Amino acid sequence: MNCSSCGAAVRDSDKFCSRCGTLVVISPQFCPECGNPVAQDANFCTTCGYNFGKPAPVQPSQSQPSAMYAAPPSQAQGMAQDSSGETVLKDTGFFPIAYVKNFMSSTNGKLTLTNQRLIFKASALQGVGGTALPGGIFIPNPKDVEKCKEFFTINLSEITNVENGWASLTIQAGGQKYKFGGMRDTKKWAETVNNAISALRR
Questions:
Q1: What pLDDT, on a 0 to 100 scale, did the predictor assign at position 74?
Q2: What is the pLDDT of residue 177?
Q3: How far does CA 24 lie from the centroid of its chain?
Q4: Mean pLDDT: which of 24-28, 54-58, 182-186 is highest?
Q5: What's the predicted TM-score (pTM) here?
Q6: Residues of each domain in the chain carrying CATH 2.30.29.30
Q7: Which residues have CB under 8 Å from 59's CB, separation 6+?
Q8: Are 74 and 93 within 8 A, CB to CB?
Q9: How many Å apart are CA 198 and CA 202, to the nearest integer?
């Protein structure tokens, strides 16, 4: 069996992929491109044509957090559950959102809500900063390149406040403020986070 995200070999007993940290979903398998269910032995998605044999870009293992977790596509929300009882409740889907550090710095990525934590994982494509040289050569800003390695979790038990704004969600936890922008349906996001916190405290 292979990881649905990066294609690495995984054992049936694995909860997460050892290469990219994606939750191993044994049955049904979901297409990482469109999120529709596919057969375990499928080579291509019957909905979007995604090639499951295509190798994903490999990132250096020392830069990856040891407890990395990525959710299945948004269409599979609430369905993926590992043996510890962690269930994906909601994620931001295919299009990236922005983790806003300050008005001059943000990181594109995906936000996932489980019944235990919020997870932010940066996407591989970041920013457009850099230097254009003659002949059409572009050298990206090294700071933008490093952004793709960003990953963090926020335990629901540490969250003290959830605010939704126009296309943004602000979380206060552990004395720190986390702002996520470029989001859709932020009122529903805030409601779902608050419901998950309430359920955890019961």
A1: 38
A2: 93
A3: 14
A4: 182-186
A5: 0.54
A6: 87-201
A7: 20, 148, 149
A8: yes
A9: 6
